[in-house]
From TrEMBL:
GO terms for biological process: peptide transport. One of its GO terms (molecular function) is peptide transmembrane transporter activity. Pfam families: SBP_bac_5. Residues 1-26 have a biased composition (Basic and acidic residues). The lineage of its organism: Bacteria, Bacillati, Actinomycetota, Actinomycetes, Propionibacteriales. It comes from Actinopolymorpha singaporensis. This is Peptide/nickel transport system substrate-binding protein. It comes from the Bacteria. Residues 146-567 form the Solute-binding protein family domain. CDD domains: PBP2_NikA_DppA_OppA_like_4 (cd08500).
């Protein structure tokens, strides 16, 4: 029988309550095939309530946006919206809300209307977005334990994961007041996702047995995805970063740029001075496919706030409340509480830090959007200025499991070098040669612990052997393993020689945007030289890094260790050759993702992992999925595909003391994505 997951209890505030009965409600030119980019699990820590109770008396906020406004108990909408209704500029609230709005229980207490949220990023695309754009079909609960309703009010799973039937909220509208229906879902999937001029291939979570799901539109508010084989992780993928496309493509807006619907598209292209329709489509929806719509004032959205102005240089963006937003608090008062979000683009990290110390930003969440703010070296100076800046820390449980994962190219085109990297004793020897405790002290301000590329202790997937093996600093043991690998001969400078007589040397690629990784690798280079292995450090920009990787021209590369918590089962890139981010064996990963049509056939151990992961994808039973994934990790421990260095400690953000309904701690993860599941629509500010 199909399972109805719509009324699963949510264990953590802010909660999304079971749906009330309707009658009780009052409430650069992009490339041809990559225009819309997409992406494509248990934390035991509880998240305590947020800040202290503070005064809600309305008075001007010092040094920032106004605080929340005093609103009578009966007011169900922001005062500005009431004024617009009275001026006949908006329909009444009852006509703007769906018949079954989503009810959000605040983290601390009911909020007041008004005020703004100032935040920053180092560039427009990287300036965050999860506080705005996380309005997908379903969402994660705040504790990341389960998938809960969002745009859809309920769903059923049939055929053991073959069919997923979703039910939209009746009367829901885009930010311009136009209806949001299954017609928009069909446009987003059939005309965007499945259009090979926009997507080279559909996101992997829409595909089973090499075939994309079939979309069935049942009626105006009901649709169904039908898969060729069961898709056990479909809901988890829909709740994670990358599944936004189904809720950011209003048909009534984008169809004018699509040749299927606009027979005069050639004339429009001439007018817009654009060569191809897919370029125009992307330009009108944003230059960055996955969050670009947020920065386009013309694009209707389902989000709590939408862009109303952007400076010509893109250094300041203002997002105002959406009058058609489809969520309320338990009193039937329309969310969001905050009037607006103001984004400041600050590329100078020192300037950003100084402004943060002055309390200019209401909330900077603990996440990758501000990677150079929430670092251990900045925490003492931020702590010293808390009283002056009027802010406090928000702790973040980092979902990454390693500061620096070192991935040797096991599929290297140079067969001699490939032979070196494939030798497990070689990798074990180099791991024992790394003084991780010294790296922690010198680079990470004594924050962290020696760790391989393995799930964190907080994860249900924690495996001690995988996490801790070969992390002991022991140069003599390192020498023994390197000798056992066959590299006993040395040149006059003391460096080991390959069987062909050449010095054993290789390059490691690292992106310039990661200064701490560069610092760590400089130490690693010295450790490896002491055991006779020569490593050259290549600090290159991100685009060149990816160009080299995608061409399989890298000797070795480093990256942050994704997949330390629940996200590991969704993106297991470091645990086996799973996808195009598995830098250690891209040809094996290509063989897997292409079902043997390209790439290179991997060894038996990797094929076993691939078979196990296929089984994970075909079951909706979470217990069975965990058992299968633990077996994948046990094989990863045996094979020791990649080297880890340091387990990250928790990250942090800051928030002003008069900014409320923010948890004192939250998960920091791209796939979560922070801070979206904590329901920013219920944040509010007081004076």
């Amino acid at each position: 029988m199909p399972r109805d997951r719509s009324n699963d209890a949510v264990e953590q505030t802010p909660e999304h309550e079971p749906e009330p009965e309707p009658e009780r409600l009052v409430r650069r030119n992009p490339s041809r095939r990559h225009l819309l980019r997409t992406g494509g699990v248990v934390v035991t820590a509880a998240f305590a309530s947020g800040c202290d109770m503070l005064s809600t008396k309305p008075q001007a906020k010092q040094g920032g946006g106004a605080g929340g406004q005093s609103v009578s108990a009966g007011a169900k909408e922001a005062p500005e919206l009431t004024r617009r209704v009275r001026a006949a500029q908006l329909p009444p609230l009852k006509q703007r809300l769906p018949t079954d709005p989503l009810v959000v229980t605040p983290q601390e207490r009911l909020g007041t209307y008004g005020g703004q949220w100032d935040l920053f990023g180092d560039s427009p695309p990287a300036a965050g977005g999860a506080e705005v754009y996380y309005e997908w079909l379903v969402r994660w609960s705040a504790d990341w334990k389960k998938v809960i309703p969002n745009v859809v009010r309920s769903w059923e799973i049939g055929g053991g994961g073959l069919r997923y039937t979703f039910h939209l909220r009746r009367g829901m509208k885009w930010s311009d007041g136009k209806p949001f229906t299954t017609e928009d879902i069909a446009f987003a999937y059939d005309d965007v996702v499945l259009n090979n001029e926009l997507f080279s291939a559909p996101p992997s979570f829409f595909v089973t047995a090499d075939r994309p799901a079939r979309l069935e539109v049942v009626d105006e508010h009901t649709f169904r995805f039908v898969f060729t084989k069961p898709n056990g992780l479909f809901l988890e993928q829909l709740a994670s970063n990358g599944a936004h496309v189904l809720t950011i493509c209003p048909k009534h807006y984008f169809s004018q740029f699509h040749p299927k619907y606009n027979k005069n598209i050639d004339e429009l292209l001439k007018k817009e001075k654009t060569d191809h329709w897919y370029q125009l489509f992307a330009q009108k929806g944003g230059s960055q496919g996955w969050i670009g719509n947020i920065w386009q004032p013309e694009v209707p959205l389902l989000t709590a706030w939408h862009t109303t102005s952007v400076t010509q240089q893109g250094t300041r963006m203002v997002l105002e409340r959406n009058p058609y937003y489809w969520k309320t608090d338990p009193e039937g008062r329309q969310l969001p509480y905050l009037d607006r979000i103001v984004r400041h683009v600050i590329s100078d990290q020192e300037a950003a830090l100084l402004r943060a110390m002055d309390g200019e930003f209401e909330f900077l969440c603990p996440t990758f959007y501000n990677p150079n703010l929430g670092t251990p070296k900045n925490k003492p100076v931020l702590a010293q200025n808390r009283d002056r800046g009027g802010y406090e820390f928000v702790e973040g449980l980092d979902s990454t499991m390693n500061k620096t994962v070192i991935a040797f190219n096991l599929n290297h085109p140079d067969r001699k070098l490939r032979e070196v990297f494939l030798n497990r004793d070689f990798r074990i020897g180099l791991s024992h040669a790394i003084n991780r405790k010294e790296i922690i002290a010198a680079v990470y301000q004594r924050q962290g612990e020696p760790w391989q590329a393995a799930p964190r202790k907080e994860s249900e997937f924690y495996l001690e052997r995988l996490a801790t093996q070969y992390t002991t600093y022991d140069p003599k043991l390192a020498d023994q393993h390197l000798d056992r690998a066959g590299y006993t001969r040395r040149d006059p400078q003391g460096f080991r020689l390959r069987p062909d007589g050449k010095r054993l040397t290789f390059n490691v690629d690292v992106i310039t945007e990661e200064p701490t990784q560069i610092d760590a690798l400089q130490l690693v280079r010295g450790y490896w030289e002491r055991v006779g292995v020569k490593m050259n450090l290549y600090s290159i920009d991100r685009s060149l890094y990816y160009t080299r990787k995608e061409a399989n021209k890298h000797d070795a590369s480093v990256w942050t260790g994704d997949g330390g918590l629940r996200d590991g089962i969704v993106d297991p890139r470091w645990y086996f050759p799973a996808n195009n981010e598995s830098n250690f064996a891209l040809l094996w990963a290509t063989w897997y993702t292409s079902r043997g049509k390209s790439g290179e056939k991997p060894p038996e151990a990797a094929r076993r992992q691939m078979s196990l992961y296929d089984q994970i994808g075909e079951t909706v039973d979470e217990t069975r999925r965990r058992q299968l994934f633990m077996e994948i990790l046990r094989i990863a421990a045996e094979e020791f595909w990649v080297l880890g260095t340091v387990l990250p400690v928790g990250t942090f953000g800051i928030k002003r003391k008069n900014f409320h309904n923010v948890p004192k701690s939250m998960i920091a993860s791209w796939r979560y994505p922070t801070p979206g599941p904590t329901a920013p629509e219920q944040y509010f500010v007081t004076s």
